[in-house]
Structure formats: structure tokens, C-alpha cells
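Sequence, C-alpha cells reproduced for reference:
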Amino acid sequence: MAKKVDADAPPALIIEFKTPQGEVWATITAEGREFKTGSTGFYANGKIKNPKNGMPYQVGANIILVGSKE
């Protein structure tokens, strides 16, 4: 079976973190990636801070194209 690919996907996505009131805490970039499992999608990892007190948060995101695993 051929691997599922999204030819219209961009090379990266921007993830924005904001409160329900609309206050933006941070943005991080999720780069396109082929995972060890064979799936494709996007991956982001980094730290963001609470803008009010500077407390850091670790962020990790895997965004997987459904059905992309060989």
C-alpha cells in the first residue's frame, strides 16, 4: 500500500498559545517531520513562559497525518 502524503501541507506550522480571553503567551514553530514509526506530520518542542510572572512551561507537540504510517 502506498504511503499517505499531504502534498498541500506547508513545511511548518505556527502554534499559538493563548488564554480564553485572547492573551497570547507564546508561539512556537512545528517543523515537518517523518517520525521513526513511519508516520509523517509536524513536531514542536520548546519552552514558553507565563507573561505575567515568567514561570516556564515545557511544550511538546506531535501532529500526525492520520493514516500516513506505511
